[in-house]
Amino acid sequence: PTNAVSTIVGPAPxxxxxxxxxxIQPDCDILAGTIKVVTPTxxxxxxxxLKGVAPVVLSATNTTGLFTGLAAGVYxxxxxxxxxxxxxxxxxxxxxxxxxxxxxxIALPVPLECEDVPIQTLNANNYxxxxxxxxxxxxxxxxxxxxxxxQPILNSAQTVTYYAEATNGxxxxxxxxxxxxxxxxxxxxxxxxGDL
Length: 196
Description:
- The mean pLDDT is 92.
- This protein has strands at residues 20-24, 33-39, 47-54, 56-62, 66-70, 73-80, 91-95, 113-114, 122-123, 136-140, 148-149, 153-154, 159-167, 177-184.
- Strand 3 and strand 4 form a beta hairpin.
- A 5-stranded mixed β-sheet has the order 8-14-13-10-11, with no helix packed on it. It has a 4-stranded antiparallel β-sheet with strand order 4-3-6-7, with no helix packed on it. Strands 1-2-5 form a 3-stranded antiparallel β-sheet, with no helix packed on it.
- The chain has 196 residues and is mainly β.
């Protein structure tokens, strides 16, 4: 007689819940992006895989769910549990390009001026080289920190220094450029000593 073998096939395991992620985009100070898996949290037997698809980047797999140093592009994330099952569909994430910071403003020569009558007005904006499109200057009264100066002018006989910081609306220049304005006081009128 033939021995019959009975095979019982159990129900298929339920599909894995899609992972949730946190994306940290590059900014003026952070050069590259980060993708962090929020759920499922790292547990024995779970591995996470991240692959770049636009542009294509080789897959990276780890057990922490933290992927750092990511260049701009589109990435796909999956995880695999201890039973060898992989989450589907993939979770897509986009890392944006690192925004560029404008260069420090370039100062032009500032001549010393003698006081006129009536006294003239000097403007520090006239002594900054032309700026690239989209870049503007914000003036301050200190090389770091300090207060914003709306009108960097001088209209009295003295010296004043303003500090120019470039901004493109998203990032600022790494440093500030100083501009010193000087108006030299007029000498006093000669005093008559009478007939000698």
